[in-house]
Design a protein that fits this description.
Blueprint: E1 2-5, H1 8-20, H2 24-27, E2 34-39, H3 46-57, E3 71-76, E4 79-85, H4 93-97, H5 100-103, E5 108-113, E6 127-134, E7 137-144, H6 147-156
Parallel strand pairs: 2-5, 2-6, 4-5
Antiparallel strand pairs: 1-7, 3-4, 6-7
Helix pairs in contact: 1-3
This protein binds adenosine-5'-diphosphate and magnesium ion.
Length: 170
């Protein structure tokens, strides 16, 4: 699934739409939780998208980029959202020190920027999002990796706030 994101607010709307389409299986505290990997160059809009998602889930106040802390957690009952940014990760063992294990599992939504830097130390993704530059704008590519991810994308496809990318190479 590919979406055009003409400006920053479109990236935030994608995040909000992802929150709205979060499958029931990941929404409840009794269920499996979900993991999202966000990839893309510096400034591609990963944090902007997470900000929209967290706000739509009910996070009030500032959503800071975990650039230096590597991890920020938010409690939005019944979910715990964990936002991780591994850009500045020095050694892989640092991932264990983040205490992800304490959060993972039922009722946890894990959002990871720069997941490739933590390869092998992270739980597998349900949904993978790649943001890329299109001049001044951005484009988002979403891919499901599990049945939760597929349900999520299928819900997302019905969100009329998003502008699907239409190939002109038909
Ligand atoms: N679709 C977009 N078009 C133009 N600018 C955007 C878009 N999405 C986000 N931005 C801007 O890009 C900058 C970097 O965004 P950020 O989310 O911090 O990127 P990342 O976390 O990927 O490094 C911010 O100023 C943000 O407002
Ligand atoms: Mg970021």
């Amino acid at each position: 699934m590919i979406y055009d994101l003409p400006d920053s607010s479109a990236t935030e709307t994608l995040g909000r739409a992802l929150a709205a389409s979060l499958p029931q299986a990941a929404r409840s505290a009794a269920q499996s939780g979900a993991v999202v990997y966000l990839r893309g160059d510096l400034g591609a809009g990963k944090t902007t998208c997470v900000r929209g998602l967290l706000r739509a889930l009910g996070v009030v106040g500032t959503v800071r980029s975990p650039t230096y802390t590597l991890i920020e957690t938010y409690s939005v009952a019944p979910l715990t959202c964990v936002h991780v940014d591994l850009y500045r990760l020095q050694v892989l063992t640092e991932v264990d020190e983040l205490g992800l294990r304490d959060h993972l599992g039922p009722g946890c939504l894990l959002l990871v920027e720069w997941p490739d830097r933590g390869a092998g130390a992270l739980p597998p993704a349900d949904l993978e999002l790649l943001l890329s530059y299109q001049g001044e704008a951005r484009q988002a590519r979403l891919q499901a990796a599990t049945t939760v991810g597929s349900a999520w994308l299928s819900n997302l496809g019905h969100d009329t706030r998003l502008v699907p990318y239409v190939s002109n190479l038909t």
